[in-house]
Design goal:
single chain; 179 residues; alpha+beta; Alpha-Beta Plaits; four-stranded antiparallel beta sheet; 5 helices; 21% strand
């Protein structure tokens, strides 16, 4: 019965195996809205024009480093139904682990990923904070349950991704998220 439960209901992780998402690295993040609904504005003359929800989303992304001292932000763009961002985890500039006294952590005990400073914790905070603020005026807002990440391996890849992010509004009609 337990085997059936795991095979039927557990969704495999989209994260890279054998990689610790708390490690210092540059991550390219894509987060989509639920059902890819256009919540954040529209592309006009190849430029993203943010509405109120888009401005909130953008502003909260810009405050991630205030919440997490070990995160450095790079290029990002908010599109009509998703956002792309580059962020760096650099524990040399912030606290690397949280010390919890008497922390239980549920079934995972001290191995609970939310007890550690990692990418998932940052994105969970971002999605939660932006959802809370946007739902004050747009009750139907929601993010897709997961997010996509890419570990940036070298300077050439970083430059290519930065260029992609900056030029994303001009390529909107060819974007796989265009609808």
């Amino acid at each position: 019965m337990d085997e059936l439960y795991r095979n039927k209901y557990r969704i495999p992780s989209a994260r890279r195996t054998h990689w610790d998402y708390g490690w210092n690295s540059i991550y390219f993040i894509t987060i989509c809205t639920r059902d890819r609904k256009h919540f954040f504005g529209e592309i006009i003359n190849d430029e993203m024009v943010l509405n109120e929800a888009g401005m909130v989303t953008s502003h909260i992304w810009e405050t991630i480093s205030e919440q997490f001292s070990y995160v450095l932000l790079n290029e990002f763009v908010v599109m009509p139904n998703h956002m792309h961002g580059l962020l760096t985890l650099n524990h040399a500039v912030g606290q690397s682990e949280i010390a919890f006294t008497n922390a239980k952590g549920g079934i995972t005990s001290i191995h609970n990923p939310m007890f550690h400073e990692n990418l998932s914790k940052v994105i969970r905070w971002y999605k939660g904070k932006s959802s809370y603020e946007i739902r004050k005026f747009q009750s139907s807002f929601g993010w897709q349950a997961r997010f996509h990440d890419h570990i940036v391996r070298n300077d050439e890849s970083l430059r290519r991704i930065q260029s992609y992010i900056i030029g994303n509004p001009q390529l909107w009609r060819q974007d796989k998220f265009f609808s």
